[in-house]
Amino acid sequence: MSEVLIAGKAVQVNEEGYLTDMGQWDEAVACEIAEELNIVLGPKHMEVIHYLREQCQTGKTLNIRRIGKSGVVDIKSFYKLFPGGPLKNASRIAGIPKPASCI
Amino acid sequence: MENIAVKTAPEVKKKEKHPVEKVLIICARGTLEDVYAALVMANGALMEGMEAKLFFTFFGLEAIRKGHSDHLHTATVGNPAFMPKVPTMLAGLPGFEALASHMMKREMDKLDIPPVSEFFEIIEASGGEVYACKLAADMFHLKQEDFIPEVKDIITVGDMYALAEGPSTQIVFI
Lengths: 103, 174
Known about the structure:
The complex is a heterodimer. Chain A has 5 helices and 2 strands, in the order E-E-H-H-H-H-H. Chain A is mostly helical. Chain A has one domain. In chain A, strands 1-2 form a two-stranded antiparallel ribbon. The model of chain A has no long low-confidence stretch (mean pLDDT 94). By secondary structure, chain B is of the alpha/beta class. Chain B has a 5-stranded parallel beta sheet. In chain B, helix 3 (32-47) runs parallel beside helix 6 (116-125). Chain B is globular. The termini of chain B are far apart. At the A-B interface, helix 3, helix 4 and helix 5 of A face helix 3 and helix 6 of B.
């Protein structure tokens, strides 16, 4: 774990770059992490990110099936929004832990 | 002398990473657990940002047959790891395999593991590709219309190897 400066804010991240305290997150932090992953966040990205944060707060394990059924985004669009490992990248941008699901 | 110096330079010692970029998963078996192994690995690869291709052959074709996908069974006879305390004779009674398979599916559903047909939909939506083996399809007298819509094509073994093209592909046989 180390402290890094993201969007002018000191935040704690783990060795893979995931925020360790989701309370340190804000949309500016999200934009900067996304930029690092070559993703420019739009309103749809934000909608998905806020949904992931809500799910995480309620303690639910996230997986691709649940996201597809969420009504927020379908699986195809989810892959398009966050290419190169959608749930992993979206979780990192959302400031929540790396998903620990095999599905 | 110069060569030795180059070899011991610290930047040469540093290991370069070569992550897997694509998986080709061949499934030749039609039991519930083998088909799920193929599906979970393909989906897992896609979720990691890799490419995934699935090739079904022989009894694996059962997984991609219309109306058969969601009725796969796990073997209760000849499977010593399954309920080790149940005698084989008992495990062979009519209905036992169906009951055991039903129970397994119920446990999977609790873990949010989708039924086989839905898993194929997820994999297709995620950019994964599903193929059937031509030789096995001919042997079982199956045509494209006998397969679920996610099956992209019926292909030869040569076409299958072409799918694995690329320097960072892994082929997995189930």
